[in-house]
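ugh finaly. both done.
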Amino acid sequence: MAATHADLPEFRRIDAVEPDLDAGDADAVAVDHLRGTDEIRGAPVGDQAGGGKAGQSEAGKQRHAGAAVHPGNHIVRLQHVPGADLDVVSRSDCMVQEERSIMKVRRGLLWAWVLFSITWLIYIGVLAKSAVPAEIASTKYTYVYQLRAGIDPDDMEDRSRPLYEIIRSPSDEKLDSEFDLVRSEYLSDWDEYAEEGKLKIVEFPDHSKLYLSPALTEADQTYLSQQFWDQRPIRWTKAVEPWLAAAALPPIIVLLLGLGTVWVIRSFQ
């Protein structure tokens, strides 16, 4: 038996941890897959040397068939597509550039909005500084008399009575006074009454004016004048409110338009 296989190559055990398979080792055996080593050890001697019969055993056929279709015996070649990496890099650079462009647009719109808002607020402030005092100075108010119980303001007999039989004294009863703005269509008539002495016009430091009846006592006139002056923040607030709306609305509208523009630009990316 030894003479029969003397011409066959010698198979050494391959160390699984440190295999010595360098090209200079003539006795080394290259194995595609671990299944190949099992086939070599498990195959009959006649099959290894090729000296068996022409017909292989059924087990040998199955082993060779399995080895033929085993994925370890197939070579998978990865074909490199020219320019593929360059295309990926180019797309990445384009995305970065687009994002930077969007950031620049947003930053530019933000600064434009800030400058516009500051300019607009200064413009409105300058206009309001002259318009609001002029509006206050042009307004004239009248005291809303508080009638005594049982007095009918539409009854001519009640209206013909002396004043303090009709109204309550503001200073004696410490009443909370209410004042109404005289409408522009009545100003000429009230000014005529003032010229005739039927009404008294009291002017205040902000040039606002109050119509009072000369029949009021001096104490009531002083009391009502002080009440009217103490309520000036309410009148100034009403005069400033339209200017505050004019100052706030345009910047808000421009801001919303800018946000909408950025949203539209991003939606097309």
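ok and the 2nd:
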Amino acid sequence: MKKFLLGISVLVLFAACTPQNATTQISSQQSDSSLIFSMLGPSMEPTLSETDILHIEKSTDLKRGDIVVFNNPNIANQRLVKRVIGLPGETVKLANNVVNIINAQNPTGMILDEPYLGDAYKNITGPVGEGFDTFKVPQDGYFVLGDARTKSSDSRLCFADSTLKMQDCVDGKTPFYITQKDILGIVVSHEKAAK
């Protein structure tokens, strides 16, 4: 597997956001050896913080819990950072403030242990659209969430912002998942930027 590390400088710009429009966005510039990203929004707190430097690695072997940088499948020229929760072919159910994974190994479901969430986000699965709490991930897809669940527009909301209609997400007209072609890389390490 061909691997490479990219240094990514992340600047987090906090804006007044509601769950419906809060999205961690990143824009990039390419240089000879790295991509430089500016990130907007708090959706990966407490794991990633303002001005963190992220090192990403190109990989086709994604695991549950990986943090990925990807192109938003629903909004052109928008890059996001989220955590992989549901793998291809799984069902993700968000109910009673827990993430439940249903797959061949766990046909009745398994409650996902998420030690990376801070106390402020433990046992929170919202926001979720009404009647839209169960997600069947396609064989080529991944279900992703931000760690700051109340501040993230992610798979639960089809990465929605004001340009998308939530009903299109509920009706399945807009993808709620990402695929390999969307993924730029996984975060393999992060560090605080020098002041």
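summary for the 2nd one i guess: The chain has a mean pLDDT of 75.
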